[in-house]
Amino acid sequence: MAKISVVTIERQYCSGGRDIGRLVADNLGVKCYDHELLEMAADRIGISAEELKEFEEATLSPFKASLSFRTGIDRKLDLTEKIFAAQAELITEIAKQGPCVIVGRCADYILKNVVRTLSVFIYASHESRINHAMEAHGIKYDDVENALKRCDKKRADFYNINTTRNWSSMQTYDLCLNSGKLGYEGCADIITGIVMNSR
Fold first, then answer.
1. DSSP code string of 130-186
2. Which of 23, 66, 82, 131 is 20 to 30 Å from the Cα of 140, by its Cα?
3. Residue 32, helix vs strand vs coil
4. Sheet holding 31-33, edge to edge
5. Which residues, at least 6 apart from 5, have a Cβ–Cβ distance to it below 8 Å?
6. Are the CB atoms for 132 and 16 separated by under 8 Å?
7. CA–CA separation, 95 vs 149, rounded Å?
8. CA distance 124 to 176
């Protein structure tokens, strides 16, 4: 079995995927890329990080929008296409440089024919995510339901449109972990063990 070079993590909002990614990276002694890719992509295409963030996970697909639908929103679609292309290029370059962990951004799909990856999906119970949203992000109880739904839909739409895969299906990934039951460190230990055993 070829060794796993890159761990990619997709995650439900407030399931701890980002924290787990950084724990895995620490365990393996490699870098974890998340928001860093946003800044790197902004530099590459020559716009501010603030402007890039606005379009980063737009649900419009520059590859599938019809010509009639494009009318009047060419700028948004063009920028969306540039963002996805720049991040895909960066993800490919980073993966070829050596082992790492990449959170989000369709990295599992982008790297499917580049290096051997372990694709992971992190999820948690609704109650666990609500508690995390309120404690870690300061979201009010009355707003938390909408926040979870909005962020999950944004991630799902972005992933589904750009990969033709199903973001929420366990068949999409090599490994699905419940961070609410296993804990962040427990999830990180499982992922780390799989990577180490592939070497």
1. HHHHHHHH---HHHHHHHHHHHHHHHHHHHHHHHSS-TT-GGGSSEEEEHHHH-HHH
2. 23
3. strand
4. 31-33, 100-103, 6-11, 117-123, 175-178
5. 95, 98, 99, 115, 116, 117
6. yes
7. 31
8. 10
Residues in CB range of 183: below 8 A, 6 or more apart: none
Q: Counting every residue, how long is the chain?
A: 199
pLDDT in tens, 58-117: 554 444 443 333 344 445 557 777 778 888 999 999 999 999 999 999 999 999 999 999
Tokens 């993590």: give the residue.
Answer: 9
**pLDDT digits 0-9 by tens, 1-24:** 469 999 999 999 999 999 999 999
Residue 117, beta-bridge partner list: 6
Give the pTM: 0.86
CA pair distance 149, 46, nearest whole angstrom = 32
How far is the CA of 106 from the CAs of 64, 162, 177, in angstroms? Answer: 17, 8, 18
